[in-house]
TrEMBL record:
Top-level lineage group: Bacteria
GO CC terms, sorted: bacterial-type flagellum basal body; plasma membrane
Purpose: Controls the rotational direction of flagella during chemotaxis.
One Pfam family recorded for the sequence: FliL
InterPro entries: FliL
Annotated coiled-coil segments of the chain: none
Compartments in which it is found: Cell inner membrane; Cell membrane
Transmembrane segments: 26-49
Name of this chain's protein: Flagellar protein FliL
Family: Belongs to the FliL family.
Record keywords, A-Z: Cell inner membrane, Cell membrane, Chemotaxis, Flagellar rotation, Membrane, Transmembrane, Transmembrane helix
Amino acid sequence: MADQDEAENPEAEVDNEASGGKKKKLIIFIIVVVVVLGSATGITLFMLMGNGETAGEEEASEDSKKAVKPPAIYFAMEPPFTVDFQVGGRQRYAQLSITVMGRDPEAMEAVKQHEPLIRNNLVMLIASEDFQTLQTAEGKEMLKTKATESIQQVLQQEIGKPGIETILFTGFVMQ
């Protein structure tokens, strides 16, 4: 019966061949797109993970680094530092409350033990700064860096390592 239809209608045979050719072209096109996308994804992953770690390994190594990091230890240096400045013939004052932050208990004990030396160095450092500069955020940040380095220098001389990470200004009043 199909043979009779094809014999009677030769255009039906041409349509079947044309639709079969379109399907082949569509399948080939889809395969090419999938291969190109797969290659692009593979190259991107290779470039991003150049050190050979997978994403899971990278997250695990970051988590283990965070887990190994000991908790922060804080030591508030009391009483607050009070320093006077001569500005344009007038007497000015600054009062700073400083807290030392570190992670090494031995170093923090050394900070407590050598507090008089550290306080002396910090008072001299603060007094040597320009009053106008200390009123700016940049001036405070610069003082924070210098004060941290000053304490680290004392600890380096006394216990052989810098010992602290930073200082924190928990109070900063200027008048």
